[in-house]
Amino acid sequence: MIKTNPLLDSIEGTQIREIYGLLNEGDINFSLGIPNFPPPQHVKDAISRANEENYGHFYGPAKGSLELRQEIKEHYNTEYSQDLKIENIVITAGCTGSLHCMRLLKALANEHDKKVMVPELYFPAHVSQAISLGIKPVYTNLNKNFHLDLNKLEANIQKYKPQSIIINSPNNPTGVVYSGNELGKMVEICSENNVFIESDEVYMGYILDGNKHNPISRFANLDEAMIHNSFSKWASMTGDRIGFTIADKCLIDKLGKVSNNSITCPNTLGQYGALEFLKEWNESKEFLKDKQKKLKETRDYMIPRLNGMGLKCKKSEGSFFEYVEINEDIEVDGPYDIKSLNLAYKFLENGVGVAPDVDFSSPDSPLRGNYMRVSFSVTKHGEKITEDIPYIEYTKEGLEKMENTLNS
Q1: pTM of whole model > 0.90?
Q2: Sign of CA dihedral 237, 239, 240, 244
C-alpha cells in the first residue's frame, strides 16, 4: 500500500458533515452554512451566457480573470476607501482554497516551530488545514460574549509565539461581528508582536442589524494582514467555488503559483457570475438587503423559541448562525461522553440536523460539550432551493421537533 502523510490520520471529518449526510428527505436542516436562497437572477444569467459562448471550455489565468480582479479592486476602493491595486488580488477555489494556499505557503516556509493562533471558538478548517500540513494551532480566549478577549490576546501571543493569527468576522459559529475599535486594537497588539493577521470575511454580506462591515485592510497595511473572502455566501454561489485573496503583491504572486499548481485555474464560468454580481452592484445590493431581512426575521423568530426550551442564545450580529448553550438541567443519554453530541443525534433521530460544538473547539476547551450551532438559513433536506422557500414555516417545524425531543 502507498504511504501517505501520517498527519492526515490525526484529522477527523466534522460532525457537521456527518450529520448532514445522515439527514433524510424532508428533515429540517439547521446544520450547514448554506444560503437558503438562489443566486440573484443577473448572476445566473451571466453564467448561462458564458456557458452558451463556451467560455467554460477554456482554461483561465492562474490568478483568475483580470476583469474580475479589477472589479474586486474597484469595489473595495469605492466601498471601503481602500487603495488596492489589481496586483493585490488573486482568485481562488472558494475561501477555503484561499486559506489552504496560505497554509501550504506557511508549511513550506523555512521556519522551525510553525504555529498559527486561532481564537477558540473557530471554523473547523482554520485548524484542520494547519494540522494536516504540520502547523501547530494554538488558541486564544474569547470573552463571555464570544468576542476576542483583547486583554488575554497579547499574553497568549507572548506565551505561544505564533507567526500568524486567523480571525473571522462575521464569525462562524458565534455570529459575532468585530467593531472597528476591536480590529484596531487587534492590529496594534499583533503589529507590536510581529504576528501576521489573516482575516476570514466570507460572511461580510450578512451583517444583520445595521452595522457595516470592516475589512481588516482598513486598519492594517497589507504587509501586516490579508483577507480571505468568497462569493459563496455573498452572492449565494456556494457550489461555484469562487473565492479571492487580498494581500501584498509579493504574497499574491506566491499564492498564485500555489493555486496554479493545485487547481490550474479557478472555475471559469463561476467567475463570470461573480463579475456580474459586482458590475451590477445596485441590483446585488437589493438582493442582499432582501436576504438580510429574511435571515433577520428567521433569527428573531428562532431566539425566543430556543431560549424557551432551555437552549440559551445571544442575538447573532451576522452570518447565518446562533450559538446556543444547553442548559445544565437538560439531561441526555447516549453513546458519547459529550452532551452536545448526544443531543445532536437525538435531534437527528427526530428529523432535525444541528451542529454540535465539538467541531468548533479543541478537545481540552472549557467551551466544549455544552453548546451547538443552529443555522437560521434553514432548508428542508432534499428540496430544491427556490426564492419562495417558506423559511418561517420550516423554522417552526424544526423548532417544534427539537422541543418535542427535549420533552420526550
Answers
A1: yes
A2: positive
